[in-house]
Amino acid sequence: MSDQNGKSEFGRRHHRKVIAFIITEALAIGVLFLAGSFALWPRPADSTLSLPLNIATIAAAAAVALIPIIFFAIAPVLPRIER
Fold it and tell me: Which end of the chain is less crowded, N or C, counting CB atoms within 10 A of the terminal residue's CB?
């Protein structure tokens, strides 16, 4: 019975992890599209907005690239199995 509970707990953890990944990746892609679209608009009269928009675009692109690595490449610390 404990074996079934372990599998269901793993399934729930994995499901929560995938949902959290989808939400964070969607938010990062949304920020990337917004920052990129504002950066590509015709140059504003006030040029002080150009640098922050470019920085936001680059930061969002880096976040989009790093989120899958953070979520799936780093191995989780699993509890020890008692025998």
Answer: C
Q: What are phi and psi of 41, to 5 degrees?
A: -60, 160
Rounded to whole angstroms, the Cα distance separating 67 from 70 reads 5
Q: Do residues 71 and 77 make contact, with C-beta atoms less than 8 angstroms apart?
A: no
d(CA 71, CA 6): 21
Give the C-alpha distances (Å, rounded to integers) separating 77 from 31, 38, 58.
Answer: 31, 41, 31
In sequence order, what are the residues at sequence separation of 6 or more whose Cβ sits closer than 8 angstroms to the Cβ of residue 19?
none
pLDDT tens, the chain, 83 aa long = 445 555 677 678 778 888 999 999 999 999 999 988 888 887 666 678 788 888 999 999 999 999 999 888 876 666 667 66
24 CB-near residues (< 8 Å, 6+ apart): 67, 71
